Amino acid sequence: MTVSLRFSKVLSIFLSLMFVLVFSTSAFAENIRDNVVKVFVTSNRMDYFRPWQSYGISTGSGSGCIIAGNLILTNAHVVDSATFIQVRKETDPRKYTAKVEAIGHDSDLALLSVNDPDFFKDMVPAQMGVLPFLQDSVVVMGFPEGGDKISITGGVVSRIELVPYSRSGKKLLSVQIDAAINPGNSGGPVYQDGKMIGIAMQVMNNSQNIGYIIPIPIINHFLDDYKNHHPDGFPQIGIDVRNTENKSLREFYRIDNFQGGVLITHVEKYSPAENILKEGDAIISVEDVPLAVDGTYEFRKGERLFFTHLVNSKHIGEILKLEIVRAGKVKLVSLKLTEFTKLVPPPEYFEKPSYYIYGGLIFSVLSADLLKAWGPKWWEKAPVPFLNYVVGKGGLNEKGDKEIVVLLDVLPDDINVGYFDSGNEIISKVNGQEFSSFQEFVNLVEKNKSKYCVFQTEQKTPIILNIEKIDTITAEILKRNNIPAQYSTDVESWLTSGH
Questions:
Q1: Which residue out of 108, 225, 401, 409 is catalytically annotated?
Q2: Which residue in 102, 163, 124, 148 sits closest to 32, CA to CA?
Q3: Is 186 a catalytic residue?
Q4: Which of 75, 315, 424, 484 has its CA 20 to 30 A from that of 330?
């Protein structure tokens, strides 16, 4: 009898707790779900193989969240290449026209605005939370494919580290969770204790229940850029480093008396580090935070992150303090974190690519956008000469080039017979002259007064055109192939200005 009564009391308490939990979860979802919106996008992506045209109209959808300032936060990849955007709340069947206010390709974030004030009527914007801890419970909200209603799923934080964002390849802070993140969830908010702590970003392919969210520190950085009208993006130093675990290495570079540090193996041209840091320098602290031999630092108790997170926490235009060891001596240096574009520019997506057509030869600039045109596994399918500038020695930019000019393809004509298979080549010289940018390349071609124009590929293969009637021939080729212009608008501006 006593056991039965005790069991009844325990059962009663358990059921009461379950009722409170279910009721509070339901109330929580009810209070914030109207902040979550479905984003409808009509887009038109550029074709980097045929840079004068696009792939055509397509439609898709994603998720977003209303934040302070009558703005909607979502993923950049949800709205890239957008030609028309609409948003809809869960409790309102009407769709409202929206536009992009700001976009950050490196952080995969975007802000949308809606001109109609009725959309934000009675809306309480999402409150910003803080970075969660491991094993914390979170709630993911959004509009994944498979239905038209809002989806609410729970999960647990399983990892916090720097990972390459699939959008840009840049390593930024990310939170891994075991909640389901499916197509359409992108841009949807992730909540903890009623506050937004991130938005859904990407899912790990070929894995179950492994998703990533863009955490609040990255979101706040993006919003600060927007509020302060700073150049968009996260700064880079412009160096390659390696760990200093090896004892002999530490002795050779005279850093064996220090606790940690990373060794600089390369300094990139035109970067903030150029002319300030050198190969063979060892960085032992960043912003007065000491580094371990593997380049990590204590982020929170029991948690470590790679030191580039300290750099990412800064804004472009700010000063970064470093403590380095050079030739055995400690030196304090300051870097101004200026805008910096690598030799192979990161994706710009809806930006129209530069191109120039001459005698049926189609020239453009090597970029991440062009590489991504080879599909999801572009690193396996893109031409090896192109990939060399991403992962090979060519990427060290020892010549100090600003851009890499590529021959994309050849539009067949009598003038270029024998060169029909010469596409996907790197061009290194024009009439024996080197150049460092696409603009220099175009100027060398246009100012050539000889009978022939000789293009030399990186493999030292010559492509020679007789250019006595080149303008007429090029015009005929364009007309025959229904190409609207010989070159992109930026090239046109160079030629008309005489630069």
A1: 108
A2: 124
A3: yes
A4: 315
**Is 4 tagged catalytic?**
no
Report DSSP state, residue 126: P
User: For the chain, how many residues are written?
Assistant: 499
Tokens of 4: 């039965």
Same domain? 161 vs 264: no
pLDDT score, position 231: 64
Q: Clarify whether residues 364 and 479 are in a common domain.
A: yes
| Residues contacting residue 459 through CB under 8 Å, at least 6 positions apart | 385, 425
- Does residue 219 share a domain with residue 186? yes
For the question of residue 108 being annotated catalytic, the response is yes
Task: Print the domain residue range for 431.
Answer: 355-497
Angle (CA) 39-352-499 rounded to 5° is: 150
Helix (H) or strand (E) holding 452: strand 452-457
Span between the terminal Cα atoms of the chain, in Å? 98
The answer to whether residues 297 and 384 belong to one domain is: no
Phi-psi category of residue 184: left, alpha or beta, with phi > 0 → left and psi -120 to 50 → alpha: left
Give the C-alpha separation, 398 to 393, whole Å. 9
pLDDT at residue 17 in the model:
37
CA 242 – CA 254 distance, rounded (Å): 15
User: CB-based burial of residue 301 (10 Å sphere; 0-12 exposed, 13-18 middle, 19+ buried)?
Assistant: exposed
Using the structure block, give the residue that is written with the tokens 């409808």.
40
Helices (H), 319-395: 368-372, 378-381, 384-391
| Mean pLDDT, contiguous 10-residue spans, the chain (499 residues) | 44 39 44 85 94 93 95 94 94 93 92 94 91 94 87 92 88 90 87 94 64 95 90 88 96 93 95 96 97 96 95 95 96 94 82 94 95 90 92 84 96 96 95 96 95 95 95 97 96 86
pTM beyond 0.85: the answer is: yes
Query: Which residue reads 């870097």 in tokens?
Result: 335
CA-only gyration radius of the chain, Å: 27
Rounded-to-integer distance, Cα 255 and Cα 261, Å = 8
Q: What is the 3-state secondary structure (H, E, C) of 163-214?
A: EECCCCCCEEEEEEECCCCCCCCCCCEEEECCEEEEEEEEECCCCCCCEEEE
Q: How far apart are CA 128 and CA 107, in angstroms?
A: 18
Q: Which of 235, 234, 253 is nearest to 244 (CA)?
A: 253
Active-site residue (options: 43, 61, 63, 77): 77
Which pLDDT score is estimated for 122?
84
CB atoms within 10 A of CB 164: 11
Token pair for 416: 């270029």
pLDDT confidence of residue 16: 39
For residue 214, the domain's CATH number is: 2.40.10.10
Handedness of CA 462, 466, 469, 473 (dihedral sign): negative
